[in-house]
Each structure stands twice: as structure tokens, then as C-alpha cells.
Amino acid sequence: MTMTMRLQRLLPIALVLLLAACASEGVRQRTLDSTLYQYAGAVRWGGLDQIWGYVDPKLREEKPLTALEMERLGLFRVTGYQVVSSSETAEGNIVRLAQIGVVNRHTQAERVIGHREEWRWDAEAKRWWLISGVPEIGGGR
Q: Which domain holds residue 108?
């Protein structure tokens, strides 16, 4: 078999593999965009239950929220959520720095806190997980 014939046989296989890789990256990016949009809504308008659903299951198991932490988080109302920067790590994780405006329900004192989010792609589940935990709105953690 000549080299040309070998290349003719391998070319379709290489093209299929390349297309599969591109499709996989497309799913990853679309899922990231959707996840980050939904997460921003959960932080801004949802409750702790919605935010907690984005946290990596391993982290939820290792560091469950205590009753005191949940109570403390309930003392605050989110007034704003703005992403300041976003980057990708060498491992392919996404790191975002966000500013979250919060108001204490009792004192009505408003403040802005910084939160570093890190997101990990789970290829098996085809979804992104928050591996940095929930924002430290009420202190603690």
C-alpha cells in the first residue's frame, strides 16, 4: 500500500475525530454560558438552595453548610451582582471575580463584597460545577 493510499484512508478518520473534538468544545462553551447566566440569576434573585445546587457535590459533602451559616446568609438580601473579570486556568477551569451588593435585613446597611468563583467542567456529567463554594455574604467560611 502506498503512502498516498494510507493518507487517503486516514484522512476521513482524522476529520471525524477533529469534528468530534470541535463539537465537544462547543457543548462545553454553550453549557458554560448558560450555567453562568443561570448562576448570576440565582445569586441575584434566588435563594441559598438555588446557589447551593451549583456547588460541586464533592465540596457539598466535604463542607456542608451549617445551620448557623444558613441563618447568617438569610440575614442578607442581594442588591447586585457584577462580574469584574474572567479567565481560564491552565487546567481549563474558569475563574471569575464578582462584586456582590448586599443589604443586612435588620440594619439596612449596604456593602459590596468580592467573591472569587472557580468553575470546573465535568465532562462525564456534561456540566460545570462551582468548586470555590458559596459567596461569604454573612462572614464565616
A: 3-130
